[in-house]
Amino acid sequence: KIPNALWANLIQERLSNVDCIKQGWILEGFPENQEQAWMLQSSGIIPRHVGKQHTVRQDLLNHPLISVYLLEVYHTTFDWPSDPLVQQRLVKPEDLSEDEVSKKLLEYHRNFPGVFQIYQKILKSINADQPSMDV
């Protein structure tokens, strides 16, 4: 686990790069809890929009694959790589057992009411139960 203050510093440093300033940025999977959301705000990192996934299906979380060479995440249903060489190199993350996914979903449902409360004025509901391009 990375301390929240270090996360905030790393994110703040990355978002200060020219590409983020010119093109914008997306944080996925962060903040995970209210403390991290407050840490971002106190660091001056305030998003214009925050998306709330109103559909999080466990079976979708069970199917990600990672390209260890490209460090990219693909999904067997919604985001399959077109390159056969990339397909051959995909591996399933070791920490995504069904039990671990259940724990992450439980933690998500416990923590996110507090995060959503902080961002309630800019919160957008997003159906994540569809292809990533549509999301």
From TrEMBL:
Q: Which Pfam families match?
A: ADK
InterPro entries (UniProt xref)? P-loop_NTPase (IPR027417)
- Which keywords does this chain's UniProt record carry? Kinase, Transferase
Q: Which Gene3D superfamilies match?
A: P-loop containing nucleotide triphosphate hydrolases
**Superkingdom to which the source organism belongs:** Eukaryota
Q: What GO molecular function terms would the record report?
A: kinase activity
Instruction: Provide the protein name.
Output: KAD8 kinase
Q: Which organism is it from?
A: Bucorvus abyssinicus (Northern ground-hornbill)
